[in-house]
């Protein structure tokens, strides 16, 4: 049977601020059959993640090259091997891949991770994959919360934040989430088991956050920046740890917003002896990933960590879903189901 | 013999920006004799340090209370015990004290450190005391330079920076100083043995710093902030460490200067996996101080660390000397000789 044509979503223009649908284009071409040593993949699930915004700028973030104009948007996928000329992979294998925003892709196998027969394979893009690993490394290796300490995490129902909070609870911390909207806050407390969650859209956000952290904040998992960081900063305790995972509030900035807040940050770091440490999850794979997968697999199987997924149907929905992600419109890990299995 | 009257310099007004002479006042009163358990101290040397500026603001830096209006300016001193009703101290003892900006002070002994008969007692306020200890802890415990790595330190001829650079050289690092003026830069290279020193007043400062750090920057000892941090940031290497000791460029800020540079700092911390950690030297005394004193004493005795002192004569000169310190006018550790011994 001939494979149908391959649709791929390419970067059409560099976004000014928040991306628009016009910054993407869909291009169709015949599927290329695999050459010697290659496999042909069909995308089942495509992961959409905030870091992708950084790859759309002309100068990339350093740890990965920017996407060229006209090139396929990059992204992690769960894919099915549909043809193989690689000795290590057989037709029908389920793999974790980096196929990007497209129906099909070729791979030489070097970037593929066999997934066996995972009950819910899309979780390999979420809590059991890169976002869950990001939460695990950032919280445990850098944040290192002690029992009874207070951990604050924003984007509390997002792919990373939801895992940060639940793992911190397992480690005995008091966990305060920050999320956009009362619905998300309810999910964080009632479903994910956070001790409290504060709505950053609330007019009294800063006071509510303070009230939710009567013992101050010992670990702030930074994935937002902006006004959330403003509200957190005065409540950081002496010796607080701030793993810096991202700062989605600024990804769409085209110019500095408002007066300089760097001296105030330096003052807090100094006076409170704060340890602020950035990390890029790509650095941490290897044995550390195996340890994560074992532990997280057990937690998920035991129901101690709940993984929420926000699933969108169809590759053509990827651009609008991605724009929504940057606006906080997703509820859980955002994945696109590209092809039914 | 009666002690003469005690002169003390008090905080007359809270400075707006850079302090002026009008923010200080000199008050004279009779010397109070020691009560039971007390000693009377005569100040030989008064230390002037940048942190004192922070104690002049209405809200203190957290680790120490602000100086009240009308209260004596605080400060470390080398003092002589001139009368004692304390069993642990005898008339004539030389001690490290916190007598502040005055001729005489009473102490219950709890904050005094016996100095024995140090050849140059004022060094107990500099390289063998708090500033040297600050350099030692910040550089070695937080910065942790490896042989061959590049260490950058500003205020390169100052009390802390000069020791940071020399200790980094002993540890095998390449050391690049930053200082204000070509004279100071010459001192850093020719006298203190830095590999290079860049004048931050030079119109091509940023380019010259880049040229002096061809392998990038692995440790940036932050004691300045502002334009120096701007120039350093693009050259920090992946995995760089930034001990945050102070940021004298901002101590006199009355309002934010210019657009927000916090997002840019967060981006650098994230993308380069930087560890930025504040420290307050008061936290580190105890056994760590003994280790420092032993090691630094050997280095100084062997001529491996040279300690420069900028000595001002007379208590009445303290305010103008302190204002000069905040403007970078000192050359080495600034001390006031209050009384000849």
UniProtKB/TrEMBL annotation, chains A, B:
Entries under InterPro entries matching the protein: ADH-like_C (IPR013149), ADH_N_2 (IPR041694), ER (IPR020843), GroES-like_sf (IPR011032), MDR_fam (IPR045010), NAD(P)-bd_dom_sf (IPR036291)
Keywords for this protein: Oxidoreductase
Domain Enoyl reductase (ER): 19-336
Descriptive protein name: NADP-dependent oxidoreductase
